[in-house]
Structure formats: structure tokens, C-alpha cells
Amino acid sequence: MAIGFAVIAAAQAGHILWVRDSWRPEMIAPSGLSPWLDPARITIALTADQTETLAVAEEGLRDGAVDLVVLELTAPVGLTAGRRLQLAAQAGHTTGLCLIPEGMGSPAAETRWRCAAISDPDPTEDSTLQNWQLIKNKSGTIGSWHVRWSRAARRLTVVSRAGE
Amino acid sequence: MFDGAARRVVSLWFPGLASDRALRARAALGPFALTIHQHNTNRIHCLNAAAERFGLHVGMAVSDARAFCPDLQSRTADPMADRRFLTGLRRWATRYCPWVGLEGNGLVLDITGSAHLFGGESGLIDSLRHRLTRAGLTVQIGLGDTRGGAWALAHYGGGMAQPGQPLAALGPLPVAALRLEAETVTALQRLGLRTIAQLEATARAPLARRFGPELLRRLDQALGREPEQISPDPDPPHYGVRISLPDPIGLEADVTAGTARLLERRCSKLAGHGTGARVLELTLRRVDQQAERVELRLARAMRDPARILPLFARCIGTVDSGFGIDQLRLEATQVEPLPTEQIGTGDAARADRLDDLITRIGTRIGIDNIRRFHPADSHIPEHGFTLVPAACSRPKPFSPPAHPRPLILFPPEPITATGPHPPQRFRWRRMQVDILRATGPERIAPEWWRDDPNWRSGIRDYWRIETMQGRRLWLFHTPQNPGWFVQGEFA
Asked: How far is B347 from chain A (nearest CA, A)?
């Protein structure tokens, strides 16, 4: 569900650099992206391994020509690599978003989120109800929200929890 | 060309240019012909003298030719390579005079004022003939006062016309030597006008009325009454530039400074031609005569040295300078037209920055690995888009899909279920999945014009599934070949 989070983050950004290993079989589909953003805004970099992924992401973050760099990671990021990404993001004033499997977070991350789709007992439209948990935050508190993407308004709405 | 100096023109004709070129590349003994595929038949394009002695001729079907001459060796003709070869010959021929033009299967040289450098006209012609024959080319050379006259002599026997007396040499030649249309030649022969001398002796007005102005224009051009230009093709612009250093250098900053100087010169030439470089090659020659080559592929055509230089930084950093570099050479190996643009702010500047970023990332992972989505003309979900290299494409808009489509697509993963309706519960990726709601089916038929092995199982009924666990999946059922698969996931 991390891709859903990335797409909602990308919907508010301008140009997006999406870095992923070329061997991964699953693929974000532009037809599915259209409720959130125009697929023409995405540039995809296909890399051979994670070392290249990190190098390309660092270059993109430092340059600042794109507004958001999304990395799909498959292995834990070392301390040095994490710090390099952090410095690059600061230098370029660019947001970097690492999509990581559970429990592989880098200590360099400013915030870390866990996202899960949750079932919607009474959907009004095509449901996109999700649960977003902020599980790490260097400069604030953590929390948990149920959110829904509103297609008409093209923005995220926070909904109250079912049963509360 | 000069007033007062008699103009002299040499015409070269290579009757067997294509076969001579092929035989130069790989010699063959005996009859030899080049074939070309025309009108659904292989025909003879060009042949050598040995083959002509067997009675073969250009345009003959190859099967007929084999019947005449069973030992015939043949290869496929390559007219483009012949053209390039002739262009090379044209460049070579500028050693005799600066005005050299192409003419059919030959060359035409304006040697006015340059013949004495080669020992007079006969010396020049001997030199030409000697060198071309040594290179394995059959050549016929004509020398005359005019382009038309030289052409006629080259194609009909060869020889020289004395200055100021064109008719003496051209008179006995047939009228076909005037570069006329085949019908005109036939008509003239029917009238009994077989040679140029006879044509010249005939009254002009009836000829003009009967054949139009073209005949008399060609006659006048051959006899020097009407001027005819030789227009040499301009050489294609050369985008290489180099710098030789008195002492070898090895520091990255020095190499960068040298590259900056080369770029400055290169880019001013590119700007003069209205072009931009797409691929730049920097060759660093070391003192041990080894050369390090650095190739920079740009995301778009560029000619701004200040922008290109930083893009070279990573490439230069990887070079092993050994004992030092004493020559730098920069060549734009691929060049594209780049018209002058309005300097913009905002969007244009931003697009420039993005292109620079693509170039810089491209030096690391290969510029073809940076892609963007392009719409494709197909209703099959996984064929509805393509990933094209970003450097050689512009963004194209997508039209929103008529039905909701998943955000993530993956190769179909089978699940155990039966029947045309989705199962209440199933296992997928080692997870238990219970269905809350199912929307569908949406039937998608395979494209019969595309043989896709994944779609051999026939039509698919797609269902959107909301699960109790929260994930929203895209399932399909193949009724013609019963089975259930998961192919995608919605956000």
C-alpha cells in the first residue's frame, strides 16, 4: 500500500522522479494513476541494483529539478547511504520518499509512515479508505489517521474512525 | 570562371562503379555481377568486363544471366554505399582542383588554371587515370571546354577536345552524347540526324519548334555558347576539435579546463550551423599513445558550453590519466538541428534543469534507462502504455480510462477457485483473503492481431474485489479455460 501513499504524495508535487530496480515484475500502471496525477509528470529511472538506485536518488534529490523522488527499496539502507540521502534532500530542498518493506527503515528518515488499506463497511463511492500511521517523527508527535482520497476535490480527507 | 582564361573541364565516368567497389572490397576472378531486387525480380545492377564478354547486360534477370554464364559470381548491390564511395572520390579529386561536382556515376572537375601543377592537361589526365586504375576502378575521361562537351567525350570513347575547337572533337559523336532524353534521340535518328555535326548544321528554328528548347540548350552547352556551372557539394560540417598540449596533464581540473576550451570552440560552430550536439565524444590521448574515450549522451540537443561542461564532470572523473594526457579531442558525433529559442523563465528553465538531470543520471545508468510513460493503442491493460526513453520523446497526455484500473499491475498470479463468480475466500500470497464486495464482471477480449502468449487462455472477466482485510484486488476469470488469477491491486 506504500505505492498508494507515494501516489498521494506525488499528486501534490510537480515533477516526480521514480527510481526502481528494473528486474521488479510489478509496475505502476498509468491508467490507474489518472485519478491522482498526470502520468506524464513521472520520469522513471530503471536501475540495475540498489546501489544504483541510491546513487540516482541522491543525484535527483541534490539537483532539485524534481519535486519528489520516490525510491523503491528492497534491502535495508546503511547509515552512510541514509545520511547521504538526507544531506542531498536538504541541499536540493526536495522530498525523498523511500518505499520500504516492513522493518527496514533508515534512522536518517525524518518521518516514517505505515500505510494499510482498510475495508470500508459502507462505501459511498469507489472506496479508497486507508489507515496511515506515523510511526516515527523526528520533529513532532506520532499518530494514526483514517484517510480517504476524494476524487472530486482531488485531495485527501481525514475521516473519523468507524465506531467512534 | 576567369575572363580571358580558357575554361577547361574534365569529366570522369566510372562505368562499373558498383562492381569495381565490390571487387575492391573482396576480389573475385571471372565474370562477376551485382544484383538488385527490382519489380519482384533479381536483376543485374552492375557487372565487370569479363561478364560483359558473355553477353550479359545491366537490367537482365539474374536467372537468364546464369543460363548464359553458369560461372557467374554475384553479390547484392548496395547503392547507398556506392553513393558514399563516389562522395569519397569527389573529396579525393579536390587534390586536382577545388571545383569538383558529382554527375551521375561520375565526377566533373573544373581544372581551369590548375592543370600546369600536374604537368599540363595530358599530365593531369595521365595522373588521374594512373591513380584510379591502380585503385581498381575502370574510368573513362573526357576533357573539353565545357561541361557538356567533357561529358560527351567521357561517355562516348574518351579523349580531349582542343581549346576553342569543340566541334572538331564532338562533331563525330552521336546525338545521344548531348545528355538528351531517349525519345528525343530516337526522333533525331529517324530524321537522319545521327551526329552532333549534322545537328549543328541543321537550321535551329525548326528544331526548336519540333523538340522544344531543351535540345538546343544542350547543344549550346556542349559547344560552349551557353554557360553551365559546376556546383561542388559543400562538405558536411565537421564537428571535431582538438588541442595538443606541450606538457602532459593529469589533474581533473586541468582536463576540465581543456575541455572547457574545446567546448567553447565547438559550441560556437554548432551555433553557427543552427545545430546542437546530442552525443559528444571526448578522446584523451595519453603520452603512452593509449587513448581514453569518454562519451556523453545528452538528454536533448544542446550547444551551451556552460551547461554541457558540468555534465562532463562525472565522465572525466573516471578517466585513468596514466603518465599524463597530451592531446584532447572533442567531437560531436551526433548532431541535431536546434533552432534558436526565446530565452524563457519558469517552465522552459525548469525543463532545461530536468533535461540536465536526465543527462547526469544517464551517465551513470545509461540514458536509455530513464523512461517515461507513453500511451499505447490497446485495450489490454498491460499493453495500454509503454515505457519509452525520456531523452528521445516528449510527454504525451493520457486519456482517463473508462473503467477503474488498478494502480499496480503484476503478472497474473493463480488462485484456487472455480465457477464464474469470485470465491468467498481464497489464499493469495500466503494470506487468507475474505471477500467483502465484488464488482464486475468486465469482459476484456484478447487482441487477435497480436499473438500474446499470456492471452492464449482466451477472454477474461475482470472483477474488482474489496476484501475484509482491506486490500482491493483485481481478479480475472478465464471462462474458456477455467481459472482464477490476481493481476493487480487498487490503491
From this structure: 11
